[in-house]
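Reminder to self: tokens first, then the designed residues, so the page reads top to bottom the way the pipeline ran.
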């Protein structure tokens, strides 16, 4: 059916810019009924589908950024602490 082919082509073109991971996860979430912002009767439009994929990607990137900042801050704090300890000369040591 040409309508089905046209719809498939439209989804394919719209979804070219999203990751395979977000596409698969979004489909799983829709099929499990976890996406409350869309109709339970009809599959989302191409625009809705792309938005759902991008929202998921953005959420993942935000979390990854927070984890990275926490790691960098922890590493920086550990290096400062190590530097302080190296600058301390115990009273039992003589110069």
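Designed residues (95 positions):
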């Amino acid at each position: 059916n040409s309508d089905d082919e046209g719809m498939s082509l439209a989804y394919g073109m719209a979804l070219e810019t999203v990751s395979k991971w977000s596409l698969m996860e979004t489909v799983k979430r829709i099929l499990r009924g976890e996406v409350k912002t869309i109709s339970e009767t009809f599959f989302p439009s191409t625009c809705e589908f792309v938005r759902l994929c991008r929202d998921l990607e953005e959420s993942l990137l935000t979390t990854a950024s927070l984890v990275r900042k926490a790691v960098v801050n922890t590493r920086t704090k550990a290096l400062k602490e190590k530097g302080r300890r190296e600058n301390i000369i115990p009273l039992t040591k003589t110069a």
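Residues 2-86 form one domain.
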